[in-house]
């Protein structure tokens, strides 16, 4: 759009296409199939869902399943981001190697579960750690939180791997059908 052109002077087919670079997700599967409402809503909701998943992780560690449910909520945020912008937008959000994410989550969960056995306690037993921080005061943590963090990272990695595997197939089929630009 030029500076002297108003939105009413543009052709009807182009009136809702994003004009500003901050609204663009990068390479899009098909510019005609974009939904500006979905993209903008996803950009607003994505950080909120991730913060909610961290809340579930931290609050749920006193009961079973906090890391798993929090990982699923965070994974759904990445699924929403993939649906809104495609694989290019997902790569802009999180670029680490997915097998490394899965491996680090599994390793953290495994080490956390086996460490009590080294001290003569049963496997997967938990204890309370108390730390006195200068500005925050005394903080108590359950050691099961570290297991839940490992499960959280593992589940996020599995969801990202599924998106990568399934999304590649979908985009390959779209390219074969001639639907990609």
Describe this structure in words.
The protein is mainly alpha-helical. The protein has one domain. 59% of the residues lie in helices and 7% in strands. It has helices at residues 36-59, 66-93, 98-118, 144-176; strands spanning 128-133, 137-142. A two-stranded antiparallel ribbon has the order 1-2. Helix 1 runs antiparallel to helix 2 (66-93), helix 2 crosses helix 4 (144-176) and helix 3 packs antiparallel against helix 4 (144-176). The two termini are 22 Å apart.
What is the fold's blueprint, element by element?
Blueprint: H1 36-59, H2 66-93, H3 98-118, E1 128-133, E2 137-142, H4 144-176
Antiparallel strand pairs: 1-2
Helix pairs in contact: 1-2, 2-4, 3-4
Count of DSSP strands:
2
Mind telling me the C-alpha Rg?
A: 22 Å
Number of helical stretches of at least 4 residues: 4
For the record, give the distance between the C-alpha atoms at the N and C termini, rounded to a whole number.
22 Å
Low-confidence stretches: none
Average pLDDT, rounded to a whole number, is: 78
Instruction: Kindly state the percentage of residues in helix.
Output: 55-70%
**Tally of domains:** 1
SS strand fraction: 5-15%
Task: Categorize the overall geometry.
Answer: elongated
Q: What is the topology, as strand order, of the major beta sheet?
A: 1-2
Biggest sheet character: 2 strands, antiparallel
Summing up helix and strand content along with how strands pair, one would put the structural category as mainly alpha
Order of helices and strands: HHHEEH
